[in-house]
Amino acid sequence: MKRIKIKDLLASGEIGAKVTVKGWVRTFRSNRFIALNDGSTINNIQAVVDFENTDEDLLKRLTTSAAVSIDGTVVESQGKGQRIEITVDTLEILGDADPDEYPLQPKKHSLEFLREKAHLRPRTQTMSAVYRVRNALAYGIHKFFNEKGFMYMHTPIITGSDAEGAGEMFKVTNVDLKNPPLTEEGEIDFKEDFFGKAVNLSVSGQLEAEVGAMSMGEVYTFGPTFRAENSNTTRHLAEFWMIEPEMAFYDLDDNMDLAEEMIKYLIDFAMEQCPDDLAFLDQRYAQEQKSKPQNERSDLGLLDRLKFVSDNNFERLTYTEAIDVLKRSKPFKKGKFKYPVDWGIDLQSEHERYLVEKEFKKPVILTDYPKDIKSFYMKQNDDGKTVRAMDVLFPGIGEIIGGSQREDSLEKLTTRMDEMGVPHEELWWYLELRKFGTAPHSGFGLGFERIVLFVSGMSNIRDVIPFPRAPKSADF
Ligand code: 4AD
Ligand code: MG
Q1: Cα distance between residue 35 and residue 449, in whole Å
Q2: Would you say the CB of residue 265 lies under 6 angstroms from ligand 1?
Q3: Domain-wise residue ranges, the chain
Q4: Which CATH class is domain 123-155+204-463?
Q5: CB-based contacts of 198: which residues, under 8 Å, 6+ apart?
Q6: pLDDT in tens, 195-241
Q7: What's the CATH code, domain 6-106?
Q8: Is any ligand 1 atom within 6 A of the Cβ of residue 449?
Q9: Predicted confidence (pLDDT) per residue in 380-410, tens digit
Q10: Coiled-coil segments, which residues (predicted)?
C-alpha cells in the first residue's frame, strides 16, 4: 500500500479507505490512542489500537518519538476537533525511542533547552510549525520575484571584498595557522594561501547583485551571509540568510514601494499556506504575552498583527524628521532613552521601537540618513550631509530591511571611498560599472530570519533557523 502523508489524509481521507501512514509517535495514551505525526502538518492523526489483540511488548514500544508504520482503515472520529481517525490493522515499529534516554517528553520544554537539542527539536509542535512557516516564506520569496520577472542570481559566498565596508568578516584560509608563512613584516602571507590572497565569507551579495542589475535589469539574491559582529542579542546571528533585490532604473521611492509590496505579499502568502501552523503559533504567542509585564505586551495577537501589517500603509519619513519626533517624545523629555538622541546618531533599537510601537504603531520606513553612519555605496543627496538610504523598521524587531539608491557617479563614489578608507583595488570591477553605462539603480536586503521571527511570533532569532550560529555557539 502506498503511504499517504498525514496532511493529505486529514484533508481528503475517505471513510473506509485502507491507508498506510508512517511517522513518529507524539503520544500514546490509555493503551489505545496513538497520536502520530509525520512533519507534513502540525496536526496528528489518531490511530486506534485494538490492544486486546495486540502483542503487549509491541504496545510497550509505542513511546514518544518512536518511528512507526501503520496500515489501517479510515473511520469517522469519535473525538472532537477531528473528522477522521484510523483503526490499526497492522503496526510495525521502525525505530524505538527508549523513554529512559529520549530527552524530549510530551510536555512543554523551554526554548533554551530545545536549542541544545537542535537535532530533535523539529519533532516538537512549536519548532516544526516555525520550520514550515520558514519554508513557506522562502517559497513565497521566489514566487514573488519570479512573478515580477526578477532573475534569481547566485552570488559567491567566498569573496575578496567587504560589501558593507564594516570589517566584520570571517576569514577563509587554508594556511597552516600553527606555522603560517610570514611576510617580511612578520604578518601572515596570504599569497601562499589557496586563493593567493586573503578572502572572506560574504557579508552581503549586494555588490555582485549590482552587476546583475546593471545587465539583467532586475535580479535578487537569496543566500547565506556571515557577520563576525559580536552581537549576542535575540536579533543577530553570525550566519543568516538574506534576500537582496537589486534593480536598474529604480529610485528610492521605487525601492520603498517594492519593499513594502514584498513584505505584504510574504505575510499574505504565509497566512494562506500555513493556516494551521499560524493558528497554533498565535495561541503560543498569546500565552507568551500573558507572562510579560503589562507595558511590554503587544496590543494585538499574532494573526491580527499580521493582518494589520498587510492591510495598512507603512509610515514613511526621513531620518531628520524621526529625530525631531524622538526629541518631542516623552521618553526623551524624561531622559528615559539610555542612548541620547541627537542628529547624527545611529538609531538604537530603543529609538526604532519607540517610533514603530509607540509613535506610529505600524511599520516605518526611514530614509535619508546621515552619510557618516551609512555605507560607502549609497547615493549622496545634494545637501552634502545625507544619503538616499532606507531602513524598514518593524514592531518587536526593529530593522528588518536595510537598503538604498546606489551612488552611480564614478567621481562621487571614488571620493566617498577615499574619505571612508575603502580600498579601490579590490573593487575595481565595481567601479567599472560606473564607468561603462552607469545608470540610477537601487536595492535592499531583507534579513530572512527577521521576517520569519515576525511572522512566527517567536522572540529569539535562534529559534527560527534550524542550526543557529552565534558567538560561542555552533554546536551542531
Ligand atoms: O542593513 P544591512 O547590513 O544591509 C546590507 O547588507 C545591504 N548590503 C543590503 C542591500 O542593500 N542589499 O543588512 C540587511 C538586513 C538587515 O536589515 C537585517 O534584517 C539583516 O539583514 N541582518 C541580520 N540578520 C540577522 N543577524 C545579523 N547579524 C544581521 N545583520 C543584518
Ligand atoms: Mg542595516
Answers
A1: 31
A2: no
A3: 6-106, 123-155+204-463, 169-202
A4: alpha beta
A5: 160, 171, 173, 190
A6: 998 899 999 999 999 999 999 999 999 999 999 988 889 999 999 99
A7: 2.40.50.140
A8: yes
A9: 999 999 999 999 999 999 999 999 999 999 9
A10: none
